[in-house]
Write a structure and sequence with these properties.
By secondary structure, the chain is an alpha+beta fold. It has helices spanning 32-42, 47-65, 110-117, 136-149, 155-162, 166-178, and strands at 2-8, 20-24, 71-73, 77-90, 93-108, 121-123, 182-184, 193-195.
Amino acid sequence: MIEYDFYQSPKLSEAEETKYHIRPVGRSVITSENIADRMQRQCTISKPDVVLALSALSRALVEVLNFGHTVRLDGIGSFRVVLEGSVEKRGRGLKLVNGGVRNICFRPDPKLLNAVRQTKLERSVTRGNHSKTYTKEELMALLDHYFQEHETLTPRDFCDTACMAKATGTRTLKTLREAGVIKNIGTARLHLYVKGNK
């Protein structure tokens, strides 16, 4: 069973309709040690062997992903690298500028996804930790005050200043960027914002 709660989606205008989305609550971070304990109970492999196997799997993934291969693990899913960089014309050819690995994309195995989809959802009795909500004017005032004392804004700074969860802060920053309130002068992976023109 997955416990969930309702969260208000960020909006920049009072005229916008209030929308909500759901997120799991009470989520814990399950470590390799926890997974090893669970696997030990389900098979004859000892916990130390499971830990070693997981470590070897991580190294093997790095080895093959470094060659651009796609890794498909039956019952788990597939992994592939996502690249980034700018392409510039140089004479009659093309040149890659600031190229690199942007992310590793994971696609779950259909059997794994279908098994998890059988899980029932139930609204949490204790309710989740909701991010603070702002009107458009309050959000603009908060940013104005921040930029009076700082030249740049990181996603973490924004979440700490606005008392928002990471997911809510990310969505709010995206909305602010699209509205021209802030401008990203960083990279696609490492966002660094300055005050926009609006």
